[in-house]
Amino acid sequence: MNRLSIYILALGVFLTATSELVVAGILHVIAEDLNISIALAGQLITAYSLAFAIGTPIVVSLTSRMGRRKVLLGSLAVFILGCLASFGSSEISVFMVSRIILGVSAGVYLVVVFGAVAKLVPAEKLGSAIGTIVLGFSSAMILGVPIGIAITNWWSWQAIFIILGLFSLLITFVIFRLLPEIEGDAPVPFGQQFKVLGSLIIVSGLFLTFFRESGNSILFTYLTPFIQDVLHVKASNISIIMLVFGIFGAIGSRLGGYGVDRWGAARVITLSIIVHVAALALLPFFIESLVISLVLIALMVFSMFVTGPAIQTYFIQQAPLSSNLVLSLNTSIIHLGLAVGAGAGGVMANATSTVFYHPWMASIIVALGLAAAFVSFRMGKKIQSYRPE
Question: What is the maximum alpha-carbon separation in the chain?
Answer without folding.
Answer: 67
